[in-house]
């Protein structure tokens, strides 16, 4: 069975919904091991895993990484990373991200 990026996205999403956050992060790593090209959905779903676990540092890193891959963050990206920062008691980072989202023409929730 050949797993493509859509299958990985679904598996990561299911892991996040099931609160199996370490599994989600492991699947994200497998995407690169299998030389698949991650999509914005791949990143956003993995960032959501970071948000749910309060891992602001990884969420911030993933946001910057997706930008270096020429993917454009959407409001889900920014809201999830800002929420991770909020949970990690990093309000300055959360505010900076919401301003960045606005500068991109996005309206944060």
N-to-C SSE series? HHHHHH
Q: Which structural class do you get from the secondary structure elements? A: mainly alpha
Largest sheet: none
Low-confidence stretches: none
- Rg over C-alpha atoms, rounded to the nearest angstrom: 14 Å
Question: So how many helices?
Answer: 6
| Total strand segments | 0
- The N- and C-terminal alpha carbons lie at a distance of 40 Å
- Rounded mean pLDDT score: 94
Helical fraction equals over 70%
In short:
The protein has 109 residues and is mainly alpha-helical.
Task: Describe this structure as you would to a colleague.
The protein has helices at 5-17, 21-33, 40-53, 56-68, 75-87, 91-103. It has 109 residues and is an all-alpha fold. Helix 3 (40-53) packs antiparallel against helix 4. The radius of gyration is 14 Å and the shape is globular. The model has no long low-confidence stretch (mean pLDDT 94).
Main traits of this protein?
109 residues; mainly alpha; 6 helices; 0% strand; globular
Protein topology:
Elements: H1 5-17, H2 21-33, H3 40-53, H4 56-68, H5 75-87, H6 91-103
Helix pairs in contact: 1-2, 1-3, 2-3, 3-4, 3-5, 4-5, 5-6
